[in-house]
Amino acid sequence: MAQIVGERVNKGDAIVDYDDKVFEDIQAEPGESAYILMHTVPFEGSVGLVNMLTATRINRKGFDTHLVLYGPGSLMASAARGYPKVGDEAFPGALGYNKQLQTFMDEGGHVYACRFSAAALYGMREIDMMEGVKPINPLDVLDAVLTARRNNALIMQTWTV
């Protein structure tokens, strides 16, 4: 039988050194911007939520932050989510995407969602998008990247299928 080494952890114990930070805590300089583009399926993994948390952190560092949702990522901006009624959280975390997007927008972040993927692929109308989300033409996805490049902005792009 294996022998257990050490003592059982208790709620609130730190099991790693959370204070040891290796890199400088960079803050935006005036006029700096960031573009985060996501092509990911909501609730099929952690990528979407982690990227929204990252976008929020970048925004809090002072960057003018733009989150571009396309492909299945456009579904993250759905205002029609909930069960048994819209806005009801059927289980903890069921509205996590909506809550994080709202926090991001409330703090000055810009959210765009591709109308092609929303309508043609998923049957989601522009009116079904969260208030504050700007519907964009599918051609705007590339132009967002080119705008970011031209402005020497931070660009993060993630794909999941």
TrEMBL record:
Top-level division of the source organism's lineage: Bacteria
InterPro entries recorded: DsrEFH-like, MSMEG0572
Stored NCBIfam families: MSMEG_0572_fam
Protein name (Swiss-Prot/TrEMBL): MSMEG_0572 family nitrogen starvation response protein
Species the sequence originates in: Nocardioides guangzhouensis
